[in-house]
Known about the structure:
The complex is a heterodimer of chains A (116) and B (113). With 116 residues, chain A is an all-beta fold.
Amino acid sequence: DAMVIQNPRYQVTQFGKPVTLSCSQTLNHNVMYWYQQKSSQAPKLLFHYYDKDFNNEADTPDNFQSRRPNTSFCFLDIRSPGLGDAAMYLCATSSLPGLAYSYEQYFGPGTRLTVT
Amino acid sequence: GENVEQHPSTLSVQEGDSAVIKCTYSDSASNYFPWYKQELGKGPQLIIDIRSNVGEKKDQRIAVTLNKTAKHFSLHITETQPEDSAVYFCAASMGNNFNKFYFGSGTKLNVKP
Lengths: 116, 113
């Protein structure tokens, strides 16, 4: 089945130690998003790729970077994780321009990041 | 920018009863309104969506209504079951550019057997 895959599902890193989360998709969608979701909160958009174009949200910390080497893969790099970066990180995809009746974003299962 | 408010934050119903979750949005340019269900430890999953040219959409026990004039939309779940227990998020999007979703704050639905 076509899907959005995130690895690993759980990641533990030390304070200040760089960490990379990965996302892959078999949907061949041209837009990929990274969200941060803290407990009991809505997902917060960090950035997105529209094809190869990278777009940062204004309030995304510089500590967060992303790479998209090809259509299928996208990576989230956290250069120096702090305790406040512990969260669920969600990857999503979308196919734009949208079909007549759908602008659905397809979410992966998420990676739970713990910072010790 | 767009602002989406969602109520209630928690909702507890008896199995078999109906549940209604309401959202309001601020930007009349928004034209796509999805509802996502998120179970504990999982990613959000689309359960129903509606475009601004439609007032109501139904899929089995789930329905969504949209009032463009009042800028609000609602999720209706009938004959609730314990497996409906989850957090539900509404969102609004203008469907243009990169289709940015503006999420509501979420509703934790608990269906008691």
